[in-house]
Amino acid sequence: MAKLANMAILFVAAFAAIFLPGTEAEDFTVGGSTGWTNNPSGGASFYSNWASDLTFNVNDVLVFNFATGRHDVAILTKDNFDNCNVNNPIQLINNGPARVTLNRTGDFHFACGFPGHCNSGQKLSINVSGSSSPTSPPSVPGAPGSSPPGETPPESSATSLAITFSLLLATSCLNLFLHF
Ligand SMILES: [Cu+2]
């Protein structure tokens, strides 16, 4: 009986191991293969278009791909971001590629601090949502004329699965104790 319970625990733990990583932090390469650059195709809307398909959660990481000395990453207040004022950043990261951990919920504003680069579209504003409040609007898959929707795995269902399996694991442990 104890052996059976042990096997059940292993089984449950294996499932938990499979599903739990889905809830862990993700890396996002800003701009995809374009990287972090001035004059991106599409201009000022390039990086907001890139971000519009994505959901950012606390502890996710933004990876800004650029060559050191050609660009940088300035973290700005909303006002300075809106005006492309890069002279008084909250934080400036000179070395590329730069990894920025999204360590809180709310808005983050980034721009390149090199002269003219922000005004040419090298700027990104994102919102980091709490894991319990998905804010992305429902997409209509296969709607005519719509671009392919960004298929992100439903975090909440992975989380509830993980919770279910954790509960199962706890129950199995209790069972094991009772049988000893
Ligand atoms: Cu730049």
Q: Can you describe what's shown?
A:
Strands 2-8-7-4-5 form a 5-stranded mixed sheet. It is globular, with a radius of gyration of 22 Å. It has helices spanning 2-19, 46-52, 78-82, 155-179; strands spanning 27-29, 56-57, 61-64, 73-75, 91-93, 98-101, 106-111, 123-129. It has a single domain, classed as Sandwich (Immunoglobulin-like). The longest helix is centred in the C-terminal third of the chain and has 25 residues, at 155-179. The relative contact order is 0.20. The model is unreliable at 9-15 and 132-155 (pLDDT under 50). It is an alpha/beta fold. Helix 1 runs antiparallel to helix 4. Bound molecules: copper (II) ion. Residues 38, 71, 112, 114, 117, 122 line the site of copper (II) ion (CU).
Kindly estimate the percentage of residues that lie in beta strands according to DSSP. 15-25%
Question: What's the arrangement of strands in the largest beta sheet?
Answer: 2-8-7-4-5
Rg over alpha carbons = 22 Å
Average pLDDT level: 77
Q: How would you sum up the global shape?
A: globular
Distance between the termini: 10 Å
- Domain count: the total is 1
Provide the list of bound ligands, each named once: copper (II) ion
- Largest β-sheet summary: 5 strands, mixed
The number of helices is 4
CATH architecture title: Sandwich
Count every beta strand, where a strand is a DSSP E run of 2 or more residues.
8
**Helix-strand sequence:** HEHEEEHEEEEH
What structural category arises from helix and sheet content?
A: alpha/beta
